[in-house]
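Sequence in, structure out.
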Amino acid sequence: MDKFVQHGAPSQTFKLHCLQRRSSISLLRRSVPVGRCAAAHAGTAGKATSVDVDVVVNGGSGGGGVGFDFEGYLSANAKAVHDALDVALCGLRCPASLSASMRYSVLAGGKRLRPALAIAACELAGGPAAAVTPVACAVEMIHTASLIHDDIPCMDDDALRRGRPSNHVAFGEPTALLAGDALLALAFEHVARGCAAAGVPADRALRAVVELGSAAGVGGVAAGQVADMEGEGDPSVGLDALEYIHAHKTARLVEAAAVSGALVGGAGDAEAERVRRYAHFLGLLLQVVDDVLDVTGTSEQLGKTAGKDAAAGKATYPRLLGLEGARVYAGELLAKAEAELDGFDAARAAPLRHLARFMAYRQH
């Protein structure tokens, strides 16, 4: 393990498995009807470009549930979370420029995958979506804050986010920095107030706060971002260091979204840890696919500047494994994530199973 590991370890550590196995793509071949991925562009039915395997999204076998409308599920939850975020960001008692900056990034759209994950994990545990909505909103606030900070010139210096000017381009660097800080603080206030109002037991809400706090700080995003910046242009950065970076910068917040949702929904410790493992693999999968798309996609498709990682000399999965090797590894992570759902009620697990497939086969 190289220099990044001495900075600390995540609360839950997992090793990369089978990175050099090139034949494992057969793990995800299924002799079932292939549906259209919700993320695919028109005319690209059944075959994804991010991972070279087949996928079933709506219907089919594998525990997903025949006739499950994942696209409708994702769309409905995205709208519900968007509306709740809009309400949460109304009437903020602060300068208008700060409020506008916060709303600009939070309400810019996006797939709302992390909030959907929190909701699906809550439902997996038998809880209602209404109880987890404050957590879902907080996760999106934390994620958005990280994006605002990530784009600032002293970090990744990106002028484009979600297809329009980054926050610091639109509002200036000082306001963008403070908008990110304000969103982080608001996220925890929102969880505390919202869970209390929804009747969530205080011990569950507190555990959710602990999960989110660890994911946002030294146990997650902050640590991963520092390690990521320190590794720029360093040819010695290998797979162990890359795992550390993305287990913190990307996967840890995905874990926190899922685990917080499950805890608020009433999951026991054993169930919550299975959800954690599922979400950890899911978070790494999200990053592997991002790395592949950074190579294969365009700025117009991605809504952010394509090719920046290579230009900055960053270690990425395609760079270390090759493009095909990265796709194979994504297939392995998808299989591992889905395996963690085996044993749960199939109907309740269907959204999480389809969410994993959606992340694997998205094209932007």
